Input
Amino acid sequence: MANIRKRKNGRFQAVVRVMGFPIETHSFDKLEDATLWASFRERELGELMGEHKPADAAMTLREALLRYKTEVAAHKKSWHQEFKRIACWLRHPLADKPLRDISGADLSQHQRIRLELGRKPNTIRLELALISHLFEVARADWGLEFLSNPRKAMRRAPLGGQRDRRLRPGEFEALMAWCDRTDNPLFKTMLVLAIETAMRRGELLNLLWENVDLHQQLAYLPDTKNGTPRTVPLSSRAIASLRTLPSAKTGPLFSVHENWITKRFTTARTECELPNLRFHDLRHEAVSRLFEKGFNMMEAATVSGHKTLQMLKRYTHLDPRGLLARLG
Output
C-alpha cells in the first residue's frame, strides 16, 4: 500500500509497502509525480511477486522449519539443541503463517511474551537467531529472494541476561577439597584443566592421549564446538594434574559421559554451598584470568578458541580489584 505525505520542506514523499519487499521511499516536488511513481512501483513489485511459483510464495513457517531441519539443522554440531528450538517454533501460532507475511512485529511480540513467561534472554536470542538464519537460507538457497528477514526489522533492544558469574575467593579451593574428601581424583583433574585451559566440557571429554604432549605442554583439539581445531598450551598446574591420571598411549583421557560430570558438579556445588555456579562458568573464569595475567585479546583467543573478539568479550569479566596495583 502506498502512502503520500507532505514534508516540512514542501516536497511530497511517496512510501511504498509491498509484503515481501523492503519499504521504498522517494521524494517529489509535485503531488501528481509522487502519486504516479507510487502507483507504478506498487504494480511493478506486484508483478515481481507473481513471477514466483505459488507454492514457494505461500510457503508457511511450518513447511520452512521442516525443510530447514533436514537440510541445515541436521548437519550442525548442536543439532539436538536446534531440533528443540524448531519443535518450539512448530507449536507456535506463527507456524501456519506464510513466510512472506511474518513481520518484525510478530517476532517482537514473541520476544515480549517469552520474557513475560520468564524465559532466559539467551534462550530467546537463540530462538530469534534460528528464524533469522532460516530466512537467509530461504533467500539464498530456496529461490525466495523476495522475502525480507523479519529479524532485521525488529528494534534491537538489548535482552541482557549475560552471565558474569566468577569464582569467589575460596570457592575453587572448596571444590578441590570436596574432590579429595569424596575420593574423586578424575573429577578433580577435570576441574583443574577447565580452569587452567578454558576448555569446554565437550572438549575435555574429547581429549585423547595421542593428542597430548606432556613434555612440550600442548594439547591438540581436532574437533571443537566452532569447527576449528586448535592447540592449547598447558600450564605447569595442568601438567601436574594430568600426571596423576593413569597414563596411556591412545584413547580418551576421561572415559565418562557428560551426565557423569553434571551429577558430580551439582552435588559438589550443593555440598560446598556455591550458589548459581555452573561448570561452564569455569571457562568464563579461565578466560578472565588470562586477561588478568596480561594476555591480550589475540593471545587469549588462541587459548580459548573464540572466533570473534566480540564473543570473547562476552565471556570476560575482569575483577576490578586486580587493577588496583596498576592504578597506584
Notes: Strands lie at 2-6, 12-16, 24-28, 212-213, 218-221, 230-233. The mean pLDDT is 86. The radius of gyration is 27 Å. Residues 57-153 form a domain with the DNA polymerase; domain 1 fold (CATH 1.10.150.130).
